[in-house]
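Support case: user asked for a sample of complex input and structure output to validate their parser. Sending the pair below.
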Amino acid sequence: MAETNSRAIEGDDSFTRSAGKQLALYALYAVISLSVLVYILSVAAAQFGSNSTGQAIDVEDNAVTITLRAEPPQLDQGRSTDASSFVVLAHAFEGLIAYDEEARLTPGVAERWEIREDGATFWLREDAKWSDGVPVTAYDFEFAWRRVVDPATASQYAFIFYSIKNAEAVNTGVLPKEMLGVRAVSDRQLEVEFEQPTPYFDKLVAFITFLPVREDFYNSTNGRYGADADEMIYNGPYMITDWVHSASMVWKKNPYYWSDKRGFLDEIRVAYITSDTNAKLNLFKDGQIVETELLSPMLPGAMAERWQIDRIMDGTVFFFEFNHRPGRVTDNLNFRKALMYAHESSELVYKALKEASYLPAVSLFPAWIQGVNGPFREEYPPPEHHMDLEKARHHLELAKQELGVDEFPPIVMLSGDTPVSLVASAYYQELFRKRLGLEIRIDAQIFKQRLAKMTSGDFDIVLAGWGPDYDDALTFGDFFASWNLNNRGRYNSPEMDSYIRTAQSSLDPKERMDAFGNIQQLVYDDVAMLPMYERGWSFVVDPRLKGFRRRSVGPEVDYNYAYIDVSSD
Amino acid sequence: MSKLTAADFAPHSNEHHCHALSRPSLSYWQDAWIRLKSNKRALASGCLIIGLLIFTLLGPLLWSVNSSEQDLDQLSTPPGSARSALIIPDYEPWAGPTTTVTELELAGSATTQSVRLQWTSLPEANGHRVYRNLYPVGEEKAYGIPMAEFFDNNTLYFEDRLDLSPGIYYYSVVALGNNRRPATEAATIRVDVLRATTVDEAIAQGLVEEGEEIAVGDTVNIALHPLGTDYLGRDMLARLMEGARVSLFIGIFAPLLYVLMGVVYGSIAGFMGGKVDQLMMRFADFVVALPFLLFMILFKISFGIGPGESGIFPMLVAMVVLLWPATARLVRGQIMQIREQGYVEASKLLGAKSSYLILRHMLPNTLGVVLVTLTFEIPRAIFTEAFLSFIGMGVAPPTPSWGSMSNEGIKTMLNTPHELIFPALLISITVLAFNLLGDGLRDALDARMRNTE
Amino acid sequence: MMWFIGKRLVQGLITVWFIATATFFAMHNVPGDPLLNDRATTAIIRANLEAKYGLDKPVTTQYFIYLNNIAHGDFGISFAQENREVNDIIREHFPVSAILGILAVVIAAVGGILWGSLTALYRNRLPDYIIMFLVILGISVPSFVIAALSQLGIVTINSLLGRTFLPVAGWGTISHMLVPALVLGLTTMAYLTRLMRSSMLEIVNSDFVRTAKSKGVPPARIFARHQLRNAVLPVITVLGPSIAAITTGGFVVEIVFAIPGLGRFFVEAVQQLDYTVIMGTTVFYGAFLVFMVILVDVIYGFIDPRVRMN
């Protein structure tokens, strides 16, 4: 800003005026050429963009517009592991058994089934067809399941098949995949042999990895199966007709789908793929999408708008996982007890996290898990726990004596980089400092690095979570098995192992649930972990859409039973 | 026509008049300083920067609140909130109604510690769901946030402890139908929540004077937070001060280091000239070509941040490694220009050694340019740090920095704008001040504008 | 001239090689394991995954394979998006970022030149004050704050008007491009305005302008041919690095406005330790920037003959 050079121009008004006119002329040229440029660029952009019509509900087309959290990285059913892919697969495919509106198991491709001690039989219906009209057969399931356990496929969910005979042997390369205990007796009948009794097999089978794949189609894609909309065929209520990667998808009703009880919409448009919840909220406010979740900062605004807010437990339990490897401070039981008595999960949820949809966790098993005849936690109440600072300090002293130290070394708390983990870790750091005088160091890592450190045991405490794969207590119950690779803290207890084996193989429901009750108690007594919270979501749906569900087990969002109803307004 | 007389043509005397000194001789720097002082904007910015430094360095001595202390009773409070709190008994878990209940009603008093509701079963209900709203429930039946669900008619009470602030809430109990979905029957109650705390908490937070006795029913003033608190109840002022230390440390030291490195590298290259210069500049070009932000992020991850470390050091190193070439090129250009000047030639002819030439002639003449560059690089470094912290690739939590505080503030922008406004404002002010100062410096040091009267 | 261009191209190639090498070794120093996932895997599956991605070979071998592949234009397969090749990802998403970036740069340049000349012309009068105030806002408010606020602004405008005047997010039509490009180019436009202003003010006092005036050349011509044209030079010099800053810094805008651009992909790839995408994107961006700088240099060489002689 050169102050002193201006004298030449200052007094010369006529110069300024004519120069100004010239400038205005240039500005006009600029605006015109800019408009032309914008037009050209927009034509180019349209090649790469989504065709968002901008309507949450399109009554004429019987269509709705939704968003996905992330681009599905893997739509090959056998190899998929992430939530976004599961959402897509749950609409485009159907397994032997499906979920109904109220999340109960209901016949899918299988009309009826029988679960015995040594195996299971599924009888498939006649009218289940693929989106090209070809009937779905038992061979499709046989082929798909063999693929999953085949080590060459490198499926990360292969472990869920291990209750099937020889599955583990095939997966570790000992036996060829044809030896898997699954056999298509005919087009309509599938026989499964168990490695050990698996009474909850029907619940397992509803999981995504058990979806069918047709062999001839798969071979025709030359390794590109699942990579694009036309590299897949579908047997679910919807087909993927359009897929612009990372931008949009369109699902259209599958004309060959056998049931009229699912798939009431003609079209589902995934017009936006974004993880930014603020952007989603803005889209919802603007009437562009039909549903969005609400985080706690958004709730006051939602209440001001007089929206109908709903909530669902999403099934996941988050907890403090301890490193039980020998040599770690956290291997000491008294130390863990000290931490346990120094805190209460309700304070974390109500004061620090402030999410109305979260529940303070009190057990390894979340509130929605079913027991014999009703909720598991009603039949087997979790141990009562209250914060007790005196006990906490007492246990801390005992731990000091046992370990022979005067002061504890700094404890490393490994956490993720999500906003919730950061809040939780900051809260705990301050809490343990204030109440127990412990120094906690926070080690915030991105997902993969956190996993790497967990696997190598490079932590003392880690803020971890576990989501259910199927609707049975075992999906949580077997977490602390000494053979479970996901038990990255290496908790090892023969008593726990024996309870888990009972729960896995006993045919008596009461015996199984008793075992789970024992597991729940043991986790508390042995402080295998500290429960933090059960995650849930507050969400809001466009009032014109009915039948939409969010699920605890199964896909995050479920439009299979959704339909448009504009009458009630 | 002027009158010319003979006296005008008298011969001039032979006196010699010395040129009077119109003012004392000013060196380059003195002249620059005068001009800088007269530039009001630059002066104001300079004062602002000094103020910021005082805020950062001396502030914690005056306001000694711990920046990581969490006041869980005052979450996200805006500045200037009311502070009186009622003393109530310590919290005891509630096991349900102790008297007969006839309708939806409050059990006990409603305080920020807990709100307890009890009700009778609604007609045709297969369970109940409790909602909480900030607004009265109108015809559209928007009940608010679902707080809890009970799937049988045995549990007819609920205790709310979620993020209660003093004010008015509207609770509704809605009957659940057979499909566990909300039905039409509902009851609503309006609750006035009072701010409260317990004796233990009051003592622990130092709200009570030594020797003073407090009992249930008294009122105390809760802790003062002049700029409000953040989402974990941490004092904003203290956090801003600590954040200032981080942001300004990186913002000032990183440029200092890489400008220094650039000066050394550039002067060597410029002075040596020839092949050495070509080679050195080629290398500098390579480093410039690396996409800056991408590499900052890559460096940050590959350094890894250990537990408890703040991540300041890796960021510093990354910035120094990536940003020195610009200064180097500038200095090299200057040196090459100066090398051709007459006075350097003259000095050489008089037998000056290379080190004398560099130290006495070249470097001081580049100092002006370097100083201006430094002043412009500081805001750039602050912005870069804020930006990286914003996308989560900056300092490691819980170390505060203005950028990470802005990141957290944006999430609650609509409800508690103060969490965003204060750090963002500080970033803007600092960046602006350094920019204006840099402008002023550049004008002051521009030799062409030297007053040559 | 050809010699000039040729020399720059060769330099550019070496620079790209340097970038590729630096990226490769930076990536392989990153702790953490891209193959790990929530559900732990058995040893044999892990071995298969490693073999598939070539991670079982020693680092130097991997480096040469990598260089070889790049020379053939093959960046490999994404780790996270297991069915997509990095080339496809770049091919599908870079144009989006490029379009956004081009628009932003053009808006910034045109705006900067026009506003700068305006303020220089009407020095110390009302237009100058208004524009300089906006410039100050533009350079001091962080870009992410501007992005979030502008999206909020769109929602408010839409609700006031009762219909969707501007889309809140997404990509594909003219109205999708306007606000994001504007937000992206704002900071650069502010800087360019200032630069243009000081450059103009310098020129105004220079000898050749004074000569032209005293010769009686019409003012409009002086303004256009002498002042504007010469003042624009520093702005063009800065344009090269500005393009760089805008294209790589675009990911905040891409995330906030749900635009499927390469910048957003890069950030997600970093968070998932997707080696191939990270390396491919970095090398690609590096090559793109090198090319842009060469282009700007060549254009500059056309405009300013002195550069060519150097």
